[in-house]
């Protein structure tokens, strides 16, 4: 073993989860996790709202598995990761490690957990004290956990440095003498020194260049295999997750919208948000189909998330009301108009022309790809009124008119997780048998 000596075999087995009873359950279980941050106001710090950074998130991680959490910045990945490590107290739900609730751990059990679950952060420059040699830095957790024998610490550190592709002599060098990639290798060595069962890697390669990124990913993969370590891998980059993870959960505004085996989710993405993330990965193949753009680029504020499906304000697959009869392109143009106005993303030219009193119906239609007449009479009338309101500079009336004209189930009901394929679930109304809408086809 790499780290400090364990006690009895039974204890060691229990700690590493290799006794038959604990090995049967996942190493990590995250159940209905909420982390809400209060928004306060005034001297008395009165709570006026909450940032729902993580909202009802559930997933498991098996022993030796690499599980990815992917989503845009602000989707709640880091907050979820910090709760897994017990660094952030959940507002609701539970994190269980080897069957035990992380937030109820204390004394020896808490110390054991701190040993068994380690964090590797994004920026290796922040991870090391410039005044400590790398040997001292990597050995620090051993000291904190009571290993007094300096020769033994040194032997463990030298062995680890070689395992992560550096040399034993590097133990005597200081952080500034290493490149970013080498420092990230050293962070991994430090995470390994206590013989962990779980490594939480928060964007571990996003501060590194392409080639170095691949080397660090390969190293993480090697140590996972060699030591049967589970990895919770956090990234905004779906392509990195594809190369590295066994399963993935896609997060949007604090919620998991799709979860399943990596090849399944990324080859047959069911959720429009997953499709959007995949579409934003540039393809080397020019014959690849271009994906539909989101309705708007504005990511809503997690302190005030949209009702129903949180993605509906950007979703290019948003479900039309049952009584609306429009060709797909017209429906898409109408909802893009609606949610662009709602997000306040009015094109600058329109804002200027409104102020000058020069805006007319044809210009608004042109900017929003709206035809002169829409095929559905009721929608046509509502859009006419909304355009008149935009020309008059009354955006609130325009928004109200459009939300009355094209209400959608996506804003009215919260979608629940539906089984899409084996072990693959998706939260989208298009997969709900009670909603009159089929999933749209996906081709890459
Ligand atoms: N301590 C805090 N107080 C208030 N809001 C917070 C706090 N920490 C995070 N948030 C908010 O919670 C949301 C989720 O943040 P988080 O850092 O978990 O997202 P992320 O997906 O990891 O994004 P990034 O990749 O940018 O770190 C964001 O809107 C963020 O502003």
From TrEMBL:
Transmembrane segments: none annotated. Belongs to the ABC transporter superfamily. Keywords: ATP-binding, Nucleotide-binding, Transport. Residues 1-26 are annotated as: Disordered. SUPFAM superfamilies: P-loop containing nucleoside triphosphate hydrolases. GO terms for molecular function: ATP binding; ATP hydrolysis activity. Residues 30-278 form the ABC transporter domain. InterPro entries: AAA+_ATPase, ABC_transp_ATP-bind, ABC_transporter-like_ATP-bd, ABC_transporter-like_CS, Oligopep_ABC_C, P-loop_NTPase. It comes from the Archaea. It holds the Pfam family ABC_tran. This is Peptide/nickel transport system ATP-binding protein. GO terms for biological process: peptide transport; transmembrane transport.
């Amino acid at each position: 073993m790499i780290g400090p000596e364990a006690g009895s075999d039974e204890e060691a087995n229990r700690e590493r989860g290799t006794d038959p009873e604990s090995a049967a359950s996942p190493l990590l279980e995250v159940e209905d996790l909420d982390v809400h941050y209060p928004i306060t106001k005034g001297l008395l710090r009165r709570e006026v709202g909450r940032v729902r950074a993580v909202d009802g998130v559930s997933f498991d991680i098996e022993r030796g598995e690499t599980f990815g959490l992917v989503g845009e910045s602000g989707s709640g990945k880091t907050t979820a990761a910090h709760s897994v490590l017990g660094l952030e107290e959940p507002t609701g739900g539970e994190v269980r490690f080897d069957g035990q609730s992380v937030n109820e751990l204390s004394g020896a059990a808490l110390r054991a957990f701190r040993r068994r679950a380690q964090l590797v952060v994004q920026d290796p420059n922040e991870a090391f004290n410039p005044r400590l040699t790398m040997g001292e830095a990597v050995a620090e957790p051993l000291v904190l956990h009571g290993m007094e024998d300096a020769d033994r610490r040194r032997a463990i550190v030298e062995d680890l440095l070689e395992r992560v592709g550096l040399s034993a002599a590097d133990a005597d060098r200081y952080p500034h003498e290493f490149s970013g990639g080498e420092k990230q290798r050293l962070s991994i060595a430090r995470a390994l020194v206590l013989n962990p069962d779980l490594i939480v890697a928060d964007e571990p390669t996003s501060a590194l260049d392409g080639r170095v990124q691949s080397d660090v990913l390969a190293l993480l993969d090697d140590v996972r295999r060699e030591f049967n370590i589970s990895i919770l891998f956090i990234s905004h980059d779906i392509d990195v997750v594809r190369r590295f993870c066994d399963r993935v959960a896609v997060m949007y505004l604090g919620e998991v919208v799709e979860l399943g085996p990596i090849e399944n989710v990324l080859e047959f993405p069911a959720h429009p948000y997953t499709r959007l993330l995949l579409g934003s990965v540039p393809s080397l193949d020019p014959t690849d189909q271009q994906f539909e753009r989101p309705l708007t680029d504005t990511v809503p504020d997690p302190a005030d998330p949209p009702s129903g499906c949180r993605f509906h304000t950007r979703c290019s697959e948003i479900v039309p009301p049952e009584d609306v009869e429009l060709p797909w392109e017209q429906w898409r143009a109408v909802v893009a108009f609606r949610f662009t106005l709602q997000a306040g993303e009015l094109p600058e030219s329109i804002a200027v022309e409104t102020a000058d009193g020069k805006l007319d119906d044809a210009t608004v239609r042109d900017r929003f790809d709206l035809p002169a007449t829409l095929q559905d009479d009721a929608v046509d009338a509502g859009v006419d009124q909304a355009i008149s309101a935009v020309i008059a500079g009354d955006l609130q009336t325009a928004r109200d008119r459009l939300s009355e004209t094209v209400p959608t189930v996506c804003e009215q009901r919260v979608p629940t997780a539906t089984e899409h394929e084996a072990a693959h679930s998706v939260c989208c109304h298009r997969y709900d048998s009670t909603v009159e809408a089929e999933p749209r086809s996906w081709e890459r």
